[in-house]
Amino acid sequence: MKNNLLFDFTVDKTTKTVYVNKEFTADISLVWDAFTKQEILDQWWAPKPWASRTKTMNFEVGGKRFYAMVSPEGEEHWSLQKYTSISPKSNFKMLNAFADKEEHPDLPGSDWDLNFSEKDGITKVSISIYNDSLDRMEKMIEMGFKEGFTATLGSLETLLAGLS
């Protein structure tokens, strides 16, 4: 794992948006697959020791991913991601919301815009997460989103090193 790769996490309260930029030592196809294929997502999309378990996923515009983050004790926190736009290997957008185990979303969620670019074997992922309300964004941060997502992206970095 290289320590000189870009990682920044910025909270902009005026726009109710969280910005995350992260570089990976992997080609763009592999990083794209890691964000868009269930079998890879479930290997990293949860801060350890939690695990990600996808119940359904259909990566296409209008499709969705319904998954749970599962604690070692079996506690489940469900989320629903609805894909609203896909430009293969460069961008996708989704609505992300917590949900109950019956797939009923706890709205409003947040709008995620993920951009992928590659230069010299380094793939950069730029994520903006827009929230309808400042209260929702602040609650997300208070619940440990920064620490959890940072750890999760670290897991992806480790996984990609093994897959490259």
From TrEMBL:
The organism of origin for this protein: Arachidicoccus soli
Family: Belongs to the AHA1 family.
The protein, known as: SRPBCC domain-containing protein
Ranges where the Activator of Hsp90 ATPase homologue 1/2-like C-terminal domain occurs: 26-160
InterPro entries according to UniProt: ASHA1/2-like_C (IPR013538), START-like_dom_sf (IPR023393)
Pfam families (alphabetical): AHSA1 (PF08327)
